[in-house]
Amino acid sequence: MNFPFYIARRYLFSKKSTHAINVISGISVVGVSVATMALVVTLSVFNGFHDLVASFFTQMDPQLKVVPVKGKSSPADDPILTKIRQLPEVEVATECLEDQALAVYEDRQMMVKIKGVEDNFDKLTHIREILEGDGTFELHAADMNYGIPGLGIAYQMGLGYTFKNSMKIYAPRREGQLNMADPTDGFVEDELYSPGVVFCMKQGKYDKNYIITSLDFARNLFQQDGMLSSLELRLKPGSNFDGVKDEMKAIAGQKYQVLDRYEQQDDTFRIMKVEKLIAYIFLTFILMIACFNIIGSLSMLIIDKRNDVQTLRNLGANDSQICRIFLFEGRMISIIGAIIGILIGLLLCWLQQQFGIVRLGSSEGNFVVDAYPVSVHPWDIVLIFFTVIAVGFLSVWYPVRYFARRLLRR
Which helix (H) or strand (E) holds 281? Predict the structure, then answer.
């Protein structure tokens, strides 16, 4: 058995001559445990919000999205895009064209994003799962084009699930000479009718901005015949997602970007990652402060065990071994605190997942979820454990060597 570790274990669990040393050692363990528990719970809550937001985005965002690197649109018959959509792993491919326009309904108007999609858009995404109203997913019938607005647009423009009159859509004219005497001549005007539904993503980015309609309507409105702003794809079940994505990137070269769901919402998820990182850094600083209790405990223990140290020296122990005894003592306090804190943190996360103890509001329905979402990621637990161990080890290394050399030689 390792001699310094054996002595350190005896010192940690044995009764000291001064009762305060036991109390301070206990406080040290509690301090490390609380800081560790806070890390587990806080990072798990950030993970919960991350997973929650991702679940909303996937209702409308495709598995993979191919967009031009330069400009807003590109030809739909580009050989590169044709080659990508013909890959054997691709199950559904949809051409999309989106841009901003002005929507006018009766006496209300607002800027919106018109997203024109093909009829198989419901096979590409889970759009049908987020529709509300008495109608169904439908983009056109005969010569009529339907528009499915987000719930936020429907509310702000007073549409309801079904708007009785047509909604007029205006977009700047891209071609032809403008008639300066008639300002309205500078816009392309078209009409959308209601299919009896609106979509609700519970995300303002979509609900307050987007109207989904047919691809032909969007191409006519924006004067972009034969063009698309993105090619959206869904793969066959069982496909090697990363492998197919890499293959598409190789085909796309420098002309197109191939984006997965997280990359499509890169801004949102980058902000969440930065917030999580900042929380981790702040809580690590708190952990460092908690480790100062370990220094105080070890300092008092060194003073208390002076006579024992002299006995160990007489038995042949050198200064290095004696220093290691107290280093092991501090490390064991860190490890015990880390294990206890992680276990308590996991227990609290489980209780929150099962019973929703900490709620977001006093009444149900005010938020997307009623209680704080929690998701425990194994790699976060590993990171927290090694962070606590590293901080605990580093915080006691210099003080123990200093006190052991200065006080024990007197």
Answer: helix 266-304
Contact status, residue 195 vs residue 138, Cβ threshold 8 Å: yes
Q: Which pLDDT value is given to residue 358?
A: 87
Q: What's the sign of the alpha-carbon dihedral 275, 280, 281, 285?
A: positive
Tell me the H-state helices in 305-318.
Answer: 306-314
Is the full-model pTM beyond 0.85? Answer: no
In this structure, the dihedral spanned by the alpha carbons of residues 106, 110, 113 and 115, taken in order and rounded to 10 degrees, is: -10
8 A C-beta contact, residue 146 and residue 211: no
Q: At what angle do helices 19-57 and 266-304 cross, to 10 degrees?
A: 170
Distance between CA atoms of residues 69 and 93, nearest Å: 19
Nearest to 45 by CA among 355, 317, 286, 272: 272
Burial of 285 (0-12, 13-18, 19+ CB in 10 A): exposed
Query: What pLDDT does residue 27 have?
Result: 80
Those residues of the chain that have pLDDT short of 70 are 1-22, 24, 58, 175-185, 301-320, 361-368, 402-410
Which residue intervals of 114-193 are DSSP H helices?
121-124, 151-156
Instruction: Report in angstroms the alpha-carbon separations of 226 from 47, 96, 186, 201, 352.
Output: 42, 11, 22, 30, 52
**DSSP tag of 193:** B
